[in-house]
Design goal:
The chain is mainly alpha-helical. It has a domain of 51 residues. It is built from 3 helices and no strands. It is flat.
């Protein structure tokens, strides 16, 4: 099995297991007055489907610090003036 096929099989298995957990969560939700539905899991589905896109073939976008890359990357947004 090549890397691509293995990767797709992994994502398919994650998806299958997620669907099982989602169904269990919906059936066992303790607050009957405020039930949940599959629409409550939209963001989780996006994350799972994004697994195939986030990894650029195992290559990093930026160099490691030892290879001349940044020692610190500031990810905190600048506050509004």
């Amino acid at each position: 099995m090549d890397h691509s096929a293995e990767h797709h099989a992994y994502i398919a298995e994650v998806w299958r297991r997620f669907e099982e957990v989602q169904q269990w969560a919906i059936e066992h939700w303790p607050d009957a007055a405020h039930p949940i539905s599959s629409s409550d899991f939209v963001e989780a589905r996006k994350e799972i489907l994004g697994l195939g896109q986030k990894r650029g073939g195992g290559q990093r976008q930026e160099a490691e610090p030892a290879d001349g890359g940044a020692q610190y990357i500031d990810v905190t947004p600048t506050p509004w003036p």
